Amino acid sequence: MEWSAEARVREMGLVIPDYANPPYGERYATMKAFHHLGRTLTISGITPEDRRGVKVHPGRVGDTVTLEQGYEAARYAAINVLGLIRFAVGSLDEVAAFIRTLTFVVVTPEFTDVNLVTNGAADLFVEVFGDRIGRSTSAGIGVSSLSGGNVFEMVTTVQTRTPAAEEVWG
């Protein structure tokens, strides 16, 4: 039986946000939520915020945010990425492969385990899509601040099974 990310999401009991009305309005200036060109879908920088804009574990890992809370924030951002993927292409089953994740984590200068925080997102993608599709190349970068006081942000690029009929961006 072929793997179904949509079935796996249901099995895991994940609540994926519905981005029928994407949260990219005036507060995000001119940023696009995603860009789908050919079979490449790139999702803009996504943070661990709920639909009301409430941040999940804002602060700095190694100071006001624990490693475990940072991991949880990364996982929450990954769930938001799934919502935008679904919005952009209609179904998570349209994902053929995760190509790359670029993550940013707000940390103290002494905190060097950025990869352990970013694993929150990476682990979720593997749980939902399986090892073959869900693993990607990645880079995790520790930074001093992110917009809006968020502790985590990620940019994601995936390959879709079906190419966009035309260039699509949201």
Mind sketching the topology for me?
Elements: H1 5-12, E1 34-37, E2 40-46, H2 67-89, E3 95-106, H3 114-134, E4 137-143, E5 152-160, E6 168-169
Structure summary, number of beta strands: 6
CATH homologous superfamily placement: RutC-like
The largest sheet has its strands arranged as: 4-3-5-2-1-6
Uncertain segments are none
CATH level-1 class: Alpha Beta
Content of β-strand: 15-25%
Order of helix and strand elements from N to C terminus: HEEHEHEEE
* Terminus-to-terminus distance: 33 Å
CATH architecture tag: 2-Layer Sandwich
CATH fold name = 60s Ribosomal Protein L30, Chain: A
Overall average pLDDT: 91
Count the domains.
1
Q: Structural class per helix/strand content?
A: alpha+beta
Radius of gyration: 15 Å
Describe the structure using short key phrases.
single chain; 170 residues; alpha+beta; 60s Ribosomal Protein L30, Chain: A
Description:
It contains three helices and six strands. It has a single domain (5-14, 32-160), classed as 60s Ribosomal Protein L30, Chain: A, CATH 3.30.1330.40. It is globular, with a radius of gyration of 15 Å. The protein is an alpha+beta fold. A six-stranded mixed beta sheet has the order 4-3-5-2-1-6, with helices on one face. Strand 3 (95-106), helix 3 and strand 4 form a beta-alpha-beta unit. The chain is 31% helix and 24% strand.
